[in-house]
Inverse folding.
């Protein structure tokens, strides 16, 4: 497991958007824009059951989060890592609410769809280029 | 080949940074922050021989460029596509200079390393979510 340096941690703990690359079942690249946070030195992202990321990550846990400072885009942060834990249920629902609080100041994530189940992924970074 | 809608074209032709996901030889995800432009409805990116992207793309031409508006990050643009052409030589060197002109107003790319060969990739979008 690679350490998250101070700059990377600030970029993850701030209200910045990141992109997250995963690999599709057919071996092609996929990338989405995500909210992120950290927990115990790992990177936490949250998705919804039924989207592309959950089956992609169940099949191939590798991910590549990337970030640049919109105010000073040179010197991006490019991470490689893999999902070491994923879960649905109360904690995953609480995680998306916490992300909504962090990013948009709302206690409850306002864009939950009827019947939607949230799913969280904890990512262990294996290589951090910052 | 998918059409680039007007908003996507503006995001590619502006001075925005994008992230570009590729797949490593071991099947893991990789992502880098890139300058981009368009040519004949395709997306052009430029790299240097010796970096990770050229061998990744020679082995697996699939890419996923992603973008969000830093001023209004909801409604990201997430593209899937594949490299249909790559080349080194005079045109690739001219391409990086044109990108430097576009992004930083310099006629000649100022960060070329001694002996560096540039390589361009033309990406055909197959799916555009905008």
């Amino acid at each position: 497991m690679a350490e998250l340096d101070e700059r990377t941690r600030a970029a993850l703990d701030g209200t910045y958007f990141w992109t997250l690359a995963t690999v599709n079942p057919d071996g092609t690249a996929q990338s989405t824009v995500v909210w992120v946070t950290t927990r115990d030195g790992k990177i936490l992202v949250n998705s919804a059951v039924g989207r592309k990321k959950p089956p992609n990550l169940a099949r191939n846990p590798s991910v590549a989060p990337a970030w640049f400072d919109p105010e000073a885009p040179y010197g991006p942060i490019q991470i490689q890592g893999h999902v070491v834990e994923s879960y649905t249920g109360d904690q995953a629902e609480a995680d998306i609410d916490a992300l909504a609080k962090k990013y948009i100041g709302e206690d409850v994530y306002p864009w939950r769809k009827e019947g939607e189940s949230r799913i969280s992924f904890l990512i262990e970074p294996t290589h951090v280029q910052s």
